[in-house]
Specification:
Oligomer: homodimer
Pfam families (chains A, B): Pro_CA
Organism (chains A, B): Clonostachys chloroleuca
Number of strands of chain A: 5
EC number (chains A, B): 4.2.1.1
Radius of gyration of chain A: 18 Å
Structural class of chain A: alpha/beta
InterPro entries (chains A, B): Carbonic_anhydrase, Carbonic_anhydrase_sf
Order of helices and strands of chain A: HEHEHEHHEE
Distance between the termini of chain A: 46 Å
Shape of chain A: globular
Helix content of chain A: 25-40%
Protein name (chains A, B): Carbonic anhydrase
């Protein structure tokens, strides 16, 4: 399979040629940390109107906040963010398997034991957002800041706020 | 402090109005997972030429791969990615503190003990990329796929490949 590397480097050359953001400070200008799923169809910057310098963007499988805790604490304690926005999305891969499933697949395909990892899939998308807000609100390491949770619709590009 | 929420939602309305990517499949089209720092000045999609649907983008403080392992395994085992690209960057916040520093700050400011978290700062940027490639290569849960590490220069937008 051909590597993406030559394409990534060619795209980067174009980016550099029109780059104008060389003087941005380290702390995010809009003082917000976004926690979003790694899904390929979601571009948090485009979907939420983020420019370079605006926000920390933390992404993992599912956009799970328990797996983002180290980064959120660094974002707040060292870089001054004071708001959190969570973005999960429709048709998420995390809705398609169980922790037992993936551990069995790893045992079968790789002959390895992955019992020490919680893969954090979920069965209810809306509840996954509410759970992830709650995890941050209950953590003694996370400041009491505004937290908003969204579901991004991969069919329309629209974010819908999840209300409790 | 005013919330970013109204601005995010207004930006999303504009995104939706010109959205044309509603039919993308779940697995990343370019079969690659990008592991990058959460830094606000880095937009991996813009810097590497990623369109919606192309790649998993995993981001955390420092772009540390040990903290991305759950997501990388899901990306490979369930969604078929077969290449990994790591992006750390110049002027990273992770170069500015020690694990001891942040734990002391949390004790002082929040009166909480964070000794159970490894915050994963680093003192040598180039070495952080090589270490993070090595962590993936040594993990029995990660497939033997091409892994490329870059340092993104926040002053120029350029990515430089880190060679061993």
């Amino acid at each position: 399979m051909p590597s993406v590397v030559p394409e990534f480097e060619a795209a980067n050359e174009k980016y550099v040629a029109s780059f104008t953001k060389g003087d941005l400070p380290l702390p995010p200008g809009r003082k917000v940390a976004v926690v979003a799923c790694m899904d390929a169809r979601l571009d948090p910057a485009k979907a939420l109107g983020l420019e370079e310098g605006d926000a920390h963007v933390i992404r993992n499988a599912g956009g799970r906040t328990i797996d983002a805790l180290r980064s959120v604490v660094i974002s707040q304690q060292l870089l001054g963010t004071r708001e959190i926005v969570i973005v999960h999305h429709t048709d998420c891969g995390m809705l398609t398997f169980s922790d037992t499933d993936i551990k069995a697949k790893i045992r079968d395909d790789l002959n390895e034991n992955a019992d020490h990892i919680a893969f954090l899939p979920f069965g209810d998308l809306r509840k996954s957002v509410l759970d992830d807000i709650e995890i941050l609100k209950k953590s003694p390491l996370v400041l009491d800041v505004p937290i908003t949770g969204y579901i991004y619709d991969v069919k329309t590009g629209k974010v819908d706020k999840v209300k409790e």
